[in-house]
Predict the structure.
Amino acid sequence: MAIKSARWIVILLAVVLMLAAPSAIYSCGPFFDEAEFVRGNAPQVSQADFAAGKLGIVLPTLRRSYLIVAYRYLSGLKLDGKQQHEAIDVWNRNMDPGRERGENAAIEAWLKARGEVPGSPEIRMYETYAPVSNEHSYQSFLNCPDEAFKSAAATLADRIHKYGADSAVVRGWIAAQDQVFSNCNGQGQVAPAILDSKDPVVRADRDYQIATAHFYGRRFDDAAASFDAIAKDSASPWAPYGSYLAARALIRKATLDTPEEDKFDGPTMKAAQQRLEQLLSDPHAAVTHDAAQRLLDFVRFRAEPAKRIAEMEQLMLKPDPGTAFKQHLWDYVLLLAHGEQAEDLSDWVRTIYTESTYEQPSGVARSDAGSAAEHAVAKWRETRSLPWLIAALQLTGAEGNAAGDLLKAASQVPASSPGFLTVRYYALRMMAKGKQPDAARKELDALLGRPAADLPLGARNLLNDERQRLATSLADFLAHAAEIPTYVGFDVGLTAGGDEQYESEQAKQSKGRPFFNAYAAQLLAQRMPLTLLVESARSSALPNHLRREIARSAWMRAVLVGDMTAADQLQPLLQELDSPLWKMMEPFRTAKAKEEKSFAAILLTLQNPGLSPFVRTGLLRSATLGEMDHFRDNWWCEASGDDVVRFRRERGSEVPSPTFLSAEDQKALQKEMAKLVQAPVAPNYLVPEVLAYAKQNPDDPRVPEALHLAVRSTRWGCTNPETTHWSEKAFRLVHQRYPKSEWAEKTKYHY
Amino acid sequence: MERFFRLAATAILVFSLAPLVSHGSASSPERRMTAVPRLMLWAWERPEDMRFLDPERAGVAFLTGTARLTRGGLDFRPRLQPLRVSSRMKLVAVIRIETTPDALLDASQAGKIAAEIVRAGALPQVVAVQIDFDATQSERPFYRELLRELRKQLPAPTPISITALASWCMGDDWMTGLPIDEAVPMLFRMGVGQSEVSSWIGSGRDFRQAECRDSLGISTDEPWKVLPSGRRVYAFSPSPWTERSLASLHWEMHSWQ
């Protein structure tokens, strides 16, 4: 008895251990690929093309920096080559390339130069950021920028040339410079000692280092006073920079030494502004004029935002926006984002712009759409400009009073205009929703007939989206149902290169292939009866991989709604499109009795977890039809098909019934959907069917396998609290009635 | 024979219970994490004024800095945008890690990042640290090393939280044994994987990885109809937080119950 007990304890513990031990089934996480048909916040063309004036369709969801450049081209202005590159830098937020790419080139160059002076203590790296304040240390600022290290390296090179690397002068200079840079992290409070040297350069260097130490150490009054003194020392090589640097000290004081984190000290900033304006009028300080102008722009951005945006808007709209286009564009965008507004350009951007989201690349619904539309129309009537025509077309509904006038104006925009495609897109939307659907359809066909080189893919998809909604027949819909995504890939915390550039097989195979967008998938999933699905699967307008997807889903739906006639009618199609599946369907085809046929269908479904009554948006299921997807993309969840479109683009938008459905089609669809929505999640449908058949046909040799697969479906299919009950029933039956079968052996658990 | 079975039973018992014993201090994750509020709002690299937030009801997980690992070493950029919170607000210091293709990912870099995270953890009002690193497969050994080093350097009561891709929580067991107190499944911006995760969650199933079962990471622009209630929620907002966006979030969370 004791032996038996101990044995059972061992077995029990072994089972516990087995169950408790984490299964290492997955040595790597999957990367979910997605298909994107339209990008909301970036152009459909390359950045280079957009910068050169090939705008594609200007969406209101483009980032403001794109809209501003678009406005220029729409207004007949251009950008030269350098300005185009600068625009691209702004779009890529590439304002400080070295710093953004994490390069410490300037610091490393300084350390190298410093390291070549014998006896210099080793320094590996500097902390160049300092907290804005000690009381609120969550925010930092760049205290010692690259220019500080470049200047130091250049000065050292010159002093080495003048005095020699091993001289006391150079060693003393380095020691003092180390003290200067020890203030960079905001913790240091060190300034070199005053040096009384007969050599005016040595003395001037030391005075300069003391001043910069005060500067980086946040002793701004001392810094300003020191720099002012330097400015007056005609013997100092640093004199031409003194006044400029004193102004910088005041600006730092104004922005950092304030009781409120995000405010600045007005009087101090004003004082800095006055100094800079004086400096710019002093020809003796010409060497600092460029830097002083940039600093003055910085000051006025904060102190005079309304004036500044007005000035920059004028700059933006000059035929030549100048050599500082990049900074001005950046500053202008920031001021817009802060709510500043000047004249026409800022008014236009503010009127048209709306944010896009992951689910709604065409933009979030605006609460002020009505008033924005009125304003856009008023501005268009006033100016008759192309930008305002676009804004008015985009915002005005088809029933709006101005629709007729807008469409007439739109028709007069020549094909050579950079805004032609945009104008036609919005005009066609208006026509389609209004009184000219036929004309819209015809023109969309003409546009979509253009060669690929003439119509960017994203723009093509936008136009095709409109064309889909104008389908007059099933054939017409199918001709436009599929789109080639603009992007296929996975979205997993990407950094560049290495494993992150891993491209799945699915992504590789999917590139350049068409798939159903959300509208088309939803129509096929929820708005078409079986008869039309069968017809769709036959259509040569669709590529075979999508015909196969439809044929499979139609067969599954036919089984679910009990229409075995339709399921049989699909056989020739399945033979053509999916020979392996068709071969597996032999028992289904040859079954005579209804019960036999149903069971054959159920067993086939259990063997092919990829079967679902709904077609997919975007990429097809990543696992093959017969493979179990271990992230539960198996069979179906909600029989209404909502899960198919729930998390795709345009989530939540209801797709209306297509106009080409006949009354008979609609009736058939209603009947089918009424049955479909009654169907539970897949395991809760499949398992009871198996159990019922097993009860009537206990000697059917297929039953043990079916019971095993039924239990398996409760593990990997969509489940709900009832699923456990079915799982257990099937588990018990296979073990009680078929204990010696291989299937009982394989069915170790229920779920 | 009897003796054999007794010995075997004892061995199996010890072996099966060993993980619980060795992670006895891991039971203290629950204790460490009690310092962190049940609702945390992510404050990313943009100006955020969250003084409207009631410190009794929520906390702020703010981006403290971004560590960029390159071939040359570590480039750390601290937060450059203001963050305003009340003096009683509990904070989680978040460090984001990014890598370049040629990053060395050696022990030296791990040590330096750990030091930066420790420093972030010492900021005023910070009760925990969180690492946001979408480590690829090849980066996982480095990440493990970093977490081990961090656990050594951090004060014992300071929790370590990490963000986790949903796939890590659904069948990839690489996080098992990491010295972390929490892995926050990021349930937004998942692309195609969203429907699979949602059907998993919607069917009443839970994440397979235990580390992922105490918290959720969501975004206000991707609301969920159903999510497990009673967990710590980290929420991201694509635009600066306001009382209104917070109210919408509460409404969404209420619907999960």
Notes: DSSP finds seven helices and eleven strands in chain B. The first strand of chain B starts at residue 39 and ends at 43. The first helix of chain B runs from residue 2 to 22.
